[in-house]
Each structure stands twice: as structure tokens, then as C-alpha cells.
Amino acid sequence: MNSAQTVDNVFLVIVAVSVALLAAVVVTMLFFVVRYRRSRNPEPENIEGSLFLEIIWVVIPLMIVISIFLYGWKGFRFMRAVPPNALPVKAFGMMWSWSFEYESGRMSNELVVPAGRPVKLIITSRDVLHSLFIPAFRIKEDAVPGMQTHLWFLPDKTGQYDLFCSEYCGEGHSSMITKVRVLPAEDFRKWYKEGRVREAATGSKGGAELLKGKGCLVCHSTDGSRKWGPTFKGLFESRVTVLTAGKKREIIADEEYLRRSVTAPQADIVMGFPPVMPQETDNVSEEELSAIIEHIKGLK
After folding, report:
1. Separation CA 263–CA 123 (nearest Å)
2. Which of 113, 134, 144, 196 could form a cystine bridge with 105, CB 3.0-4.6 A?
3. What whole-number distance in Å separates Cα of residue 250 and Cα of residue 68?
4. All domains of the chain, ordered by start, with CATH?
């Protein structure tokens, strides 16, 4: 059994109980309409209460509610008990993208998983509150800054499935969409063993992979187009107008500026862009930052 089946079973039980109660209420209502219509009862009568009926309509609903709770609690416990053979994947939410990191060091903007093996997501946020939601597997969990949450699911069919942020997190919330790619086990093993991003963090190719893997390209472009942040194309050694401590000034976008923009992004806020860049010191190592800067230098 997987999480989708568990949630669906509880949902169907609740729907079945609701339909049964609706039918019972409608049938009872029709009975009273016919049985106590004016033509059969021209003179009103005083009807005394019934202790037996009062007990019935208190006890039966109580038993139904308790039964639904216990059934739902059983499903909840199943969904929180991670199988020991689950594949651990770290999931990072950030404005406005998702990033996934595997034990091998492999990073991806899509969640790539093997079919038939449980997957444990270890979830956190790099900036504000997000909420990871995969409708196809009926799972959702908050991504909280400075805190790790978790969930697990069993991808039993190959294919692609949508992954959303289901908690409003800013202007780019609607674009915080990616995919879950469920691969056959052998295809996943090949993908999983491909080059380690951290070990390849040298040269322009490593920088390009890191920009994508770290989610930088959600807010910045490499072709000159405008997004939430300044484009990387032609940025190096260009003149940039910024606000520093509330004062407007013009600086050269040299290597020191690029490094400071990652480690202390609120120090110099580029004019015309919102101050939403999070501090990335925990997300980017010194070697990775150097590779990213070298790549940006080449984007003339």
C-alpha cells in the first residue's frame, strides 16, 4: 500500500458515510412529510420527547465520528512511519524553485526517483515558508526555514508528475512548479551514478550546472532577459546602480561584488529589483561559489 491509496481509502469511507447519512435524512424527511401531512392530521397534537431516540441520535453519530477518526489516525501513522529501505533525498524550497540533493552528491531541480522503492524527502526552506505538494501521491508537507520536516511516498508507476508549492510565498509563487520523474530501477541507477555536481564544481560547465541546480536561474537569466533579479549576461565588470545602507551609488560588478551578492545580498540592493535574494552561505560552498563566478565572468 502507498500514501495515495491510504488517503483515497479514508476519503472514500468519509464519502460513503456522508452519502448514507444524507440518504437516511432524506428518507426520514419524506416519511415525516407523508406521515404527518395536514390531510391526515387536521388537528395538531402535542408530541412528547423520546429518551430512546435522543440516545440513538447522540450515540450513533458519536460512534461514526470516532470510527472515522481511528481509521484516519491509522492512515496518518502509516504515512509518517518511513520504511527502512527508503531512498533519502533532501528537498530545498526557495523563492521560487525547488532543489533536490541525493546522498551521491547529485543535485537536480526535478525530483528523480526509482519506481517501486520508497522515497523519504527531508524538507527545509532557504528563505520563507513553502509547502511541498505532490497531488498524484497525495502528500504535502511544509518547508520551514531553519527546520527539517519529512514525508515519504512509494512511486509505483513510471512517468512524470507535478510538484507544487501550495503555500503562498511571494510574487513568484505561481511559478514554483517542477516535476517528479519516476524511472525504472535500472534507468535510475544510471542517472544516480552520473557525475557528482560538487566534485565537478570547476570550469564553466560546473558553474552552469550549479546555477541550475541551486535554483539561481529561477530569478536570474543568462541571456539578458529580465526576471526577478539582474541578468548574469554581461554583468561582470559592468556598472551597477545599487542602494547601500539606503544610499544610492554606482559600483563595478567585480568578483568581490559577485561574491558579496551571494554571502550578503542585502548589502547592495540593485536598483529596480525587489530585495528578495536570500543569503546563500549555507547553500553554496566556497568552491561552488568560485565556479559560479567563473561561469558568470564568461557570460559576455
Report:
1. 22
2. 196
3. 64
4. 3-80 (1.10.287.90), 87-193 (2.60.40.420), 203-297 (1.10.760.10)
- Check residue 54 and report its DSSP letter: H
Q: State pTM to two decimals.
A: 0.69
Predicted local distance difference test score (pLDDT) of residue 113: 94
CA distances from 130 to 5, 135, 146, 166, 170 (A): 25, 16, 12, 7, 10
Are 121 and 191 spatial neighbours (Cβ–Cβ below 8 Å)? no
Residue 204 CA, chain-centre distance (Å), reads 30
Q: Are strands 159-165 and 177-183 parallel, antiparallel or unpaired?
A: antiparallel
Q: What is the pLDDT of residues 35-50, one digit of tens each?
A: 888 888 788 777 777 8
Q: Tell me the C-alpha distance between 230 and 220, whole Å.
A: 6
Render pLDDT for 133-164 as a digit per residue (tens, 0 to 9). Answer: 999 999 999 999 989 999 999 998 999 999 99
Compute the distance between CA of residue 125 and CA of residue 93 in angstroms, rounded to an integer.
5
The amino acid occupying position 88 is P
3-state SS class at 88:
strand
Give the separation between CA 178 and CA 132, rounded to whole angstroms.
11
- Name the residue among 166, 174, 294 with its Cα closest to residue 236: 294
Query: At 18, which amino acid appears?
Result: S
Q: Which residues lie closer than 8 Å to 252 by C-beta, 6 or more apart?
A: 237, 238, 239, 240
What's at 288, amino acid-wise? E
